[in-house]
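Still learning. Show one?

>
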Amino acid sequence: MAVRLPRPHRFDAYLAVGGLLGGLLLVLLGLGTRRSDDPITLFDGPWPVLVPLTVLAGCELLRRAAPRAALLTGTAAICADLVTQGSLASVLMFTDLVYAAVLYGPLASARRIQWITGLLTIVGTLVPYAVWRQPEAFLIGVAVGVVAYGPAASGWIVRNHRDAAEAARLRAEQTALLAEMDRTQAVVAERARMARELHDMVANRLSAIAIHSTAALSLDDPRTSTDALTVIRENSVKGLEEMRRLIGILRDGDERPSAVPTLDGLTSLVDDARTNGLDVALDAEHGGSLPAPVELAAYRIVQESLTNALKHACPGRVTVTVREADGSLALAVTSPYGDRRGPVAPGSGAGLVGMRERVALLGGGFEAGPEGAAWTVRALLPLTEGDSA
């Protein structure tokens, strides 16, 4: 099976061509790194230099795609260059191969190259001096350090900076992703909150208007029509006020504390329900000031339960019970359940969903359903600071 070689990077191709042309120019000018009478030169003349020069130029094509193979082949080529008159272009290309192997190769190979080139530099410094006992022998170690260890150290520094920049980029992307997720969740939560507020504040008014307008149209009784129109007008005015308050909250982005309903408003809420035609009995016992989220949730649950009773309950008494015990606030709204005769306002089920959401946000319990001949809504709201945050 044929092995497909990786495609070289454009910059690597420029380096290979530049190194090869530069080496050819040095050969034509007769410039080498050693004299022809140097004892280490086994192949005299300028042309044997072209063999390692060409191999190193080919390795430059693989400096990024296959850095370890390029360095191993380049090491063999530079060793071959030592027995010729030598070329500065070959030395420069070899140093670039060392640099590229550390920068682009695997992390383990980069560390290994660091140790090997450092050890060669130390050996190249100490061994020649121990043999010749001449200060000039130290120059061999300097040359090894410049050709091998210097490029390896440079590649290691650049690699560390590159990895740090990549890690910073990834952290920035993760931070941006988390911020976007938080923003999306905040928008969804705010939309759900406003949907609950809109439903709880306006739905009961519109339900009363729908029921009484149906009664006024279905009964040919001037007094009944007058009473129905009176209730319709009261609910229209109050509904308009609540709608204006909600629009103000949306525009200003802030809700005044005095506008937040509390349990003290249950009496007024029950009176409004009686005005709309419900027979309601309130039994509320609770201590002093409760957490604001708990009071708001309790008020809205009672409000929505009375609205549902107005729309769906059979004739009879509706009871509202509020009790505080064992660190929780217990609510129960019971209304007659069965086949209703008379005007009925359609329901969407959003009210039960909103009540469940309010209780869930406080970490409480909620249930609603028929119990014998009655429909009962029960909610248990914790009063602790952690649950009511």
